[in-house]
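Bug report (template v2)

What were you trying to do?
Predict the complex of my protein with magnesium ion.

What happened?
Run completed; filing so the output is reviewed.

Input:
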Amino acid sequence: MDALLSVRNLGKHFDGHVVLESIDLDLEAGKVHQLIGPNGSGKTTLVNVIAGALKPSSGTVHFDGHDITGKDPHEVYRYGLARSFQIPQPFVNLNVNENLVTSSTENRGDLYRNAPMRFRWVADERKLQKMADEVLELVNLTHVVDNLSSNLSGGQMKLLELGRIMMTGAKMIFMDEPIAGVNPKLAHDIFKKINQICAEHGITFLIIEHRLDIAFQYVDRVYATDQGRIIAEGTAEEILENSDVIESYLGT
Ligand SMILES: Nc1ncnc2c1ncn2[C@@H]1O[C@H](COP(=O)(O)OP(=O)(O)OP(=O)(O)O)[C@@H](O)[C@H]1O
Ligand SMILES: [Mg+2]
């Protein structure tokens, strides 16, 4: 197996308080992976350390053949690793379409010196709009394309967030609780979209999600954390039968 993301012996502490310890992960390309574990077990911290928002205290992270250990978020993002947040952060004063188009880094018109010269960026603009139209369709937001993002429902905002990340050309997407607070129908829709994007675009996912009844129907592989360590990994069925996971997280 060739891992897209490899984490070795990763550790993180805050002023001596150990939050992550000896984390090893090998995430395969083109799969949907889920991270579970009790509150405070270190899931968000792990994603933050991998994606560059926090510096690791020890260990290494390799992504797509690059050593990204301790690199800043914008560098990690340039290698094709993007993340969404526990609370979506769209541009609230822009509509859905504008939120998508401005998420791409591929428009030469963004450069100050090019902006007055339309011929330099008009083709980029057309290409981006075509891509935005496709992404809109994919995340089911075509019918609200002109709405301000601040007027979307919680679930639609999560879909917009997913669409914005797709516009960056990411190879791997981290999502922190994409269906928290979302009604069941839309929660299923979001996971169906994730599976479709994974299958059709070969994008790999790592998703933190507590709602196992829904998420477990869609993910390929599950990693269970407890007190800063990975205590189990396997298919959803295997995890449901793992005694350590039952004891720490699922209850009896
Ligand atoms: N910046 C920080 N400074 C100090 N401690 C922190 C910091 N960030 C996180 N922690 C601590 O690290 C531990 C893990 O937190 P983290 O947010 O990663 O957990 P989590 O698994 O994502 O929890 P939840 O399921 O509630 O989202 C907690 O004890 C938290 O208090
Ligand atoms: Mg968290």
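What did the reviewer find?
The mean pLDDT is 91. The radius of gyration is 19 Å.
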